[in-house]
Every structure is written in structure tokens, then in C-alpha cells.
Design goal:
The complex is a heterodimer of chains A (260) and B (275).
Chain A (H helix, E strand, L loop, with lengths): L2 H9 L4 E3 L6 E8 L2 E8 L17 H13 L6 E8 L6 H5 L2 H17 L4 E10 H6 L6 E5 L5 E3 L3 H7 L4 H10 L7 H5 L6 E3 L9 H18 L15 H14 L4
Parallel strand pairs in A: 3-4, 4-5, 5-6, 5-7, 6-8
Antiparallel strand pairs in A: 1-2, 2-3
Helix pairs in contact in A: 2-4
Chain B lengths: L9 H8 L6 E3 L24 E8 L2 E8 L7 E2 L1 H19 L5 E6 L3 E2 L4 H18 L5 E5 L8 H6 L4 E5 L9 H8 L9 H8 L1 H6 L5 E3 L3 H14 L10 H10 L8 H12 L1
Parallel strand pairs in B: 3-5, 4-6, 5-7, 7-8, 8-9
Antiparallel strand pairs in B: 1-2, 2-3
The chains are: A alpha/beta (260), B alpha/beta (275).
Chain lengths: 260, 275
């Protein structure tokens, strides 16, 4: 059983698990700290009809299914919680031919719309949060929380592939990452970018203990409370290693209104 | 100035799309806003970080164009380049909220995240996607895909969120670059050296036939600019392409995946989705 599945099962034990549109997308409805909540997981499915999406990747079915389960939950002011354990998007010929970019856009768009309409959207990183898969499932959240564990990783591309694409060795990448925080794979560097709302220390990241679960639920409840007051991502610009992102916006604003 | 839109630089493309004399670049090269991360990796930065933001008018109406320069680092987005696009879209949204109608045009020649600034590129693209979704409720956000690099990675997902997509025939649109797919899935799955095969799956005509873009034009400035004006006039689409799960999901679930797919097969499936 995947990390994501362990955490999904633990966090939704008092909720109603529902059949998702596809077996690789799980849904449960219930309450988080007294508010209606929908929990969503993308998980491995060895019988996935798309062979390139059997290990928990976000593929064509997963992208469109995420869009459906997110949009269906937006009738009332329901919190959306994405449990994130996604190794990558699906790499394959069928995927490209049938527009996997559009499927992932559907998912990202649905989450963004939900947040902008005032639904608290939370992401809990319990494993890998990679690249296009994370853009589709989690990156549109008001708050991104992560288990403080070496198995939790955020990146634009897996290390082996990134080494090939940039024509560097994996050792070179590690050396660069040590001094260039946005290139690093570990959470401490990622946190220095200002994109995380919290790191939660747990005793078992693979599958939660009772006290892990209490901690995570408390962090989620606090994040939900904060998210109720905001629909934007502006708070992500305050990281110590993200100063240029803020400066660009300030300068753009100064020049925007000037008439030539 | 080039009359071939696909051959033009990002700056020329932005100029060519805006009404004559209305082009005004924001944070141009003189602002010297370079990437804070490239130099320490031995890569020469560029004073505009590969993105041109221009305000101006299209058919007299206020518009902002964000054009990505495919010639700099493969049109990849790092921290500064990404913040320029996200920031411009956020300001266009504010204008619309204040009652100043402002449309946005994205000229997308990009490989997606700049791996040398990995997580900051990814974060910026998430913010670009958020801004497109918010802005497209007010004014059309139009994506134009052209040039040899194509539109890939996280920015292909951003393209999928646009109100309308215009593509030139030689353009390409897909999530994963051919080399990465070949490396991850094997040459039998995807042969990155087989150019006709790649264009047959991801080129402009195929994407139009599959309903994944709204227009496929020639490479000339005239044909791209007139398509842009047509879609701006059309106003907001009734249904966003990215909201079509009720058409895609059943079709994808019915597929027989025992055979590998070719371009004709993909067209037939996507035609069925549109019907």
C-alpha cells in the first residue's frame, strides 16, 4: 500500500469513502474541524487501462477525474484536501496523442477555481510531489503542508531525468543543489522558498501513528481556518529565497499604469 | 521587421500583435532584471530573462502581451521570467476588477520549467495558471503557440487553461518533450528522432483536428494577428476547454488500449469526444 493510501485511510476513517470516477482517484466526504470536507487522493492502480499511469502518476484519466471530483464538491463551501503522493505525470505516446496537458489543465483549473470561489483548498504532501503531477494535484492550494520526512520531495523533474536533460551527472546536480536552493530536492531548501505553510514532524511518515494523526489533523484544521480568510496565493511571495519574485511584481506595478 | 511570425523574436512578436505605435515594454532589458540563479551555475543571464511584457492596444482595446523567447534557455521559465508573466496577468486582473477591460495574450514558445531554477519555475507556473483562471472569467486569455521549441511542460498545462488557443502549423503542443518520453518510456513508446511522427501527434493541424486548439494558422504575421483579433472579438467562450471532463472521461474509459495509438487513431477518438 502506498504512503498516500495509508494517510488517506487514516485521515478519512470517520468519513464516507466514495467510489471515484476511476480506481486511481479516491474520494471521501466528511468533516474537518466541524466544516464539510472532501479528501482526494491519486494512487497507484496496477490495472490502470493506461499502462504508463500504473504507479501513481497523474495521467489522462486522473487529470479529468480530479477535475470532476473537485468541481462536484463546489456546491457548498466545502474544504478540499489533496493528499499528495505523486511520482510524476504519465510519460507515454497515448498520453501525448490524446492531450494529457489538457487533462492536467482541467485538474489545476478546477482546484484554482474552487480556491478563488472561497473553498479552503489544502494540500498535504506525504510523499513525492513532482512536476506536472503536483501542478495538477496540490499546487493550487491555499496552504501546502508537508510531513517533515526525507521521503517527501518537491521537484520539477526526477533527478535521473533532470541530469540527462541538463547534461549533468547526478553528483553535479547534488553539488549545485547544495548552494542553489530552488534546485534542491529536500524539504528544508524547499521551505526556504516560502511555498510551504508548515512542516509537520511525525514519528512514522509511511503510515501514521495515533499521535501523528492528531498532529496532522490539528495542522490541517489551523490551515483551514487561515484559508477561510483568503483566496489568493500572495502569501507565497514572502520566502527568503524568493525575493526576486516579489521585486519583479513591485517594479511591474510601478510601470504598469504609466502612460507612454 | 520579419513578416514571418514564427521566425520573429519574442519582442518583435509582441510588437507585431499590438496596434501600431501602441507597444510599451514593461521591465525591458534596461531594467536589467536578470535571474539570480543562473550566473552561479556558469550560465550567462539575459537582461530580460527571456520574457517580454508589453502593454498596448489591440483593435483599440487595452491589452497586455507576454511573449517567451524560445532562443534563451529553450524558452524555459525561471524565477524572474515566471514572475514577469504571473505579475502581468495579476495586474491585468486588477484592471478588469477596476472596470478597465484588459485582455491578455500569451505567446508560448517554451519548454516549461527552467531546470536550473527548478522549484521556483514550478511555483511561478502554478501562479501563472491561477492568474489565467481568474482573469479568463473577465476577459479572454489567448495563447499563441509558434516557433521551433513548441509549448511543453508546465506551460502546456497553462495553455490548456487559456480561453482560446491559436497555433501555427509548425508549432507543437504537448506535456512532455519527446526526448524525456523516450528516456522514461523507451524508443518503442516514443522515438524522439522521428520528426514526422512527432509532428503527426503534436503539430498544429493535429491539435486542431483533435479540438485541443481553436485555430491552426500559417506562419505569417497576418494570419496569426487576424486569428487573434477574431478570438478577442468573440469574447468569453461559453464553455472552457478545461471544463470538459464529462465528455473526455467516458470516452477515455471506453478505449481499447491493446494497440498502440497513431495520429489517425487519436484524431478519431478526439473527434468522438467533441461530438
Amino acid at each position: 500500500m502506498s504512503r498516500g493510501q495509508h494517510w488517506f485511510d487514516a485521515l478519512t476513517q470517520n468519513m464516507q469513502q466514495k467510489a471515484g470516477p476511476v480506481p486511481s482517484v479516491c474520494v471521501a466526504d466528511g468533516e474537518l474541524a466541524g466544516r464539510p470536507c472532501r479528501v482526494i487522493l491519486v494512487r497507484p492502480d496496477a490495472a490502470n487501462p493506461f499502462p504508463r499511469a500504473r504507479s501513481g502518476e497523474v495521467g489522462l484519466l486522473e487529470g479529468w477525474a480530479l477535475a470532476k471530483v473537485v468541481q462536484e464538491a463546489t456546491g457548498d463551501k466545502r474544504t478540499l484536501l489533496a493528499i499528495v503522493d505523486v511520482p510524476s505525470q504519465a510519460y507515454g505516446r497515448r498520453e501525448e496523442a490524446l492531450g494529457i496537458h489538457q487533462a492536467l489543465a482541467a485538474a489545476a483549473g478546477a482546484y484554482a477555481k474552487a480556491r478563488q470561489a472561497g473553498h479552503p483548498v489544502l494540500a498535504l504532501l506525504v510523499g513525492k510531489a513532482m512536476s506536472g503531477a503536483f501542478l495538477a494535484h496540490g499546487y493550487q492550494a491555499n496552504a501546502i503542508l508537508a510531513l517533515d520526512d526525507a521521503g517527501v520531495m518537491v521537484h520539477a523533474m526526477g533527478k535521473a531525468a533532470a541530469a540527462r536533460v541538463t547534461q549533468r551527472s547526478e553528483e553535479d546536480l547534488d553539488r549545485l543543489a547544495a548552494s542553489i536552493p530552488p534546485m534542491a530536492y529536500d524539504l528544508k531548501n524547499y521551505a526556504s522558498l516560502g511555498l510551504l505553510s508548515g512542516r509537520i514532524a511525525v514519528s512514522s511518515a509511511e503510515a501514521p501513528t495515533g499521535s501523528d494523526l492528531e498532529k496532522v489533523n490539528a495542522a490541517l484544521a489551523a490551515a483551514q481556518q487561515q484559508a477561510l480568510g483568503s483566496t489568493s496565493l500572495a502569501h507565497r511571495l514572502d520566502g527568503e529565497n524568493r525575493r526576486a519574485s516579489k521585486k519583479v511584481r513591485q517594479l511591474l506595478r510601478q510601470q504598469w499604469a504609466l502612460e507612454s | 521587421m520579419s513578416h514571418n511570425f514564427a521566425d520573429a523574436s519574442a519582442r518583435q512578436r509582441a510588437k507585431l500583435l499590438l496596434d501600431d505605435g501602441s507597444f510599451r515594454e514593461l521591465l525591458g532589458p534596461f531594467a536589467r532584471l536578470t535571474s539570480p540563479w543562473l550566473e552561479r551555475q556558469g550560465i550567462v543571464p539575459q537582461f530580460d530573462d527571456g520574457v517580454v511584457i508589453a502593454k498596448g492596444r489591440i483593435d483599440g482595446q487595452s491589452a497586455v502581451v507576454a511573449a517567451i523567447e524560445g532562443g534563451f534557455q529553450g524558452g524555459s521559465l525561471g524565477e524572474v521570467a515566471g514572475a514577469k508573466i504571473a505579475g502581468a496577468l495579476e495586474l491585468a486582473l486588477e484592471d478588469n476588477q477596476k472596470g478597465i477591460p484588459t485582455a491578455a495574450v500569451l505567446v508560448l514558445e517554451t519548454g516549461g520549467v527552467r531546470l536550473q531554477e527548478a522549484n521556483l519555475g514550478l511555483a511561478a507556473i502554478a501562479e501563472i495558471q491561477s492568474a489565467i483562471v481568474e482573469l479568463r472569467a473577465h476577459q479572454p486569455v489567448i495563447g499563441i503557440i509558434t516557433g521551433p521549441v513548441g509549448c511543453f511542460g508546465g506551460m502546456s498545462i497553462a495553455a490548456g487553461l487559456c480561453s482560446y488557443l491559436i497555433m501555427t502549423r509548425e508549432g507543437r503542443l504537448g506535456l512532455n518533450g519527446p526526448l524525456v518520453i523516450e528516456q522514461e518510456a523507451g524508443i518503442g513508446e516514443y522515438n524522439a528522432a522521428d520528426r514526422p511522427f512527432i509532428w503527426s501527434l503534436s503539430g498544429g493541424e493535429q491539435r486542431l483536428a483533435g479540438g485541443l486548439v481553436d485555430a491552426c494558422t500559417g506562419e505569417s504575421t497576418g494570419s496569426v494577428a487576424s486569428a487573434l483579433r477574431y478570438y478577442l472579438k468573440k469574447g468569453l467562450p461559453k464553455v472552457q476547454r478545461s471544463d470538459a471532463f464529462d465528455r473526455f472521461l467516458p470516452a477515455l474509459l471506453e478505449l481499447d488500449n491493446s494497440q498502440q495509438l497513431d495520429a489517425a487513431g487519436a484524431r478519431a477518438i478526439l473527434k468522438g469526444v467533441q461530438a
